[in-house]
Every structure is written in structure tokens, then in C-alpha cells.
Hints:
Elements: E1 6-10, H1 22-33, E2 39-49, E3 53-55, H2 71-74, H3 86-95, E4 102-104, H4 111-120, E5 128-134, H5 139-149, E6 157-163, H6 181-196, H7 199-202, H8 212-215, H9 223-231, E7 238-242, E8 245-246, E9 250-251, E10 254-257
Parallel strand pairs: 1-6, 2-5, 2-6, 3-4
Antiparallel strand pairs: 1-10, 7-10, 8-9
Helix pairs in contact: 1-4, 5-9
Amino acid sequence: MTKLPSLFVSHGAPDLALAEHPAASFLAQLGAALPRPKAILVVSAHWERHAPAITTSPSPVTIHDFAGWPRALYDLGYPAPGAPWLAGRVAGLLAAQGLSLATDPLRGLDHGAWVPLRLGWPAADIPVAQLSLIRGGDAAAHLALGRALAPLRGEGVLVLGSGAAVHNLGALTLEGTPPPAWARDFDAWLAEALAAGDREALCQFPAAPPTAHAAHPTPEHLMPLFVALGAGGEAAGAVRLHDSWSYGSLSMAAYAFGGSETVLRDPAPTWPGS
């Protein structure tokens, strides 16, 4: 079986599901660029628990965890089958690393999960389970969580982290506005550290770099990246797959880790204002 890469994507605002945007176009071709996974384990910035938890519903509901958007967004669903069988395998992998796993039979898929899934795998015919972040967990803790999941990649399970490379909702502007300097600087730091494989520097987040607090007033939207990075393997190289911006300051960057030669690199990254 082909070993899949692990992925990190920036899911943007909820309206990415309906928008004409470079990031939406990138996600729309991503599923076809990968071998078909047996299941997808998605880690979204919008679900945190004190200890890792996984969904076990055989038919996870679509959670519309946002307000004030056009009615059409609330009419969207993602009726993929669940993957309750995956909970036992993940529990075993985490236990081997001294981590426990709770199960949640009622939790569905929040927009951080279903928006990129709906774009990348629109048929909704691949089983999906969602794994929570660790509330209060730092970058190193999420890297360790991802490291425990690394064997899944050789078992046909796609580990998909979904958050944002830069996420400051207080700095949003009109779509198409060039990103401010602090956003560009953090995005560049992240890309350079990932390309260099500098996990020590990456795990200083959010204490460093100096632009980290402006880029992430709260850290949860970058934590799925650390899970994906860990799942890519100890020597995982990082390939930047996509580069665009949304609402001025949301970086829509996407990365692949380990086995990334199988992923279609976005042929036309878009950076407003460049």
C-alpha cells in the first residue's frame, strides 16, 4: 500500500466552501492528486479537549459552528460515513506513547473539518473520523500526538490537519487586500522553518517569533500543523503546496509532510499585492 503524506491545510472562513478563491481551487484538486485513502483522520482547530478524543459516530453530522453568514452555507452538508473502527487503532497507537484517547459518539464534523473535505473529496464517500486537539497543549505536545499517528500513513489513512497558517480575526479586511507586514513575516518564518526541518525553532511557538502573537492571538489554529508534521515522520520534509491569502490577513498556506512527492504542488500560488 502506498504510504500517504500527512497534510496541513488552512481552511479559511466558512464561505471558502462556496467562494471562488485560489485556496478553494487548490483544495478542489487535492483529493484527485492523492491516492484514494481508506479513511481520513482530520484534526481541526475547532475541537479541543483536555485529552485527545475521537469521533465514533457511524454517520457524523455536519456542524455549522458559525453565525452571520449567508443562508446557503447552512444548507451545505458533508454526509460522509464515519470511521468508528479507527478509534481502536488510534487508541492503541496513542497508548504506545503513553497517551490516552477518549471517544465521542455524538460529535460531528465542524467547519474546520467539513469545508476542506467537501472541496477536496466532494463525493463524501470516504470514511471520516475527527480527532481533537489537546486544550492547553503546546506545540511539542501536538507534535508528539502526530508522531504517534505516523503508522496510519502506511495503512491507507490520511492524517489531515486543518487550521490556518496565519489567523487573526481582529485584523480581517476586504477580500483581496494585501496582507500586512507582520502576517507576511510570520508566514515566511513558518515556511522557512518547515523547509529547514527546524523543529526546535517551530516548537518555540507561540513564544517566538516576535510576530507570533499578532499572527495567532490564540494558538489553536496552528496546532493542527504540528500534528500533521509529527505524523509525517521523524525525518519528514515539508513541501509547501499552496500560498494565498484571504480577507487580507488569513494565510491559506498548505503543506505536505513525508511522501509528499505524491502530492500535486499548486501550479499557480497567489499572493495578493505581489
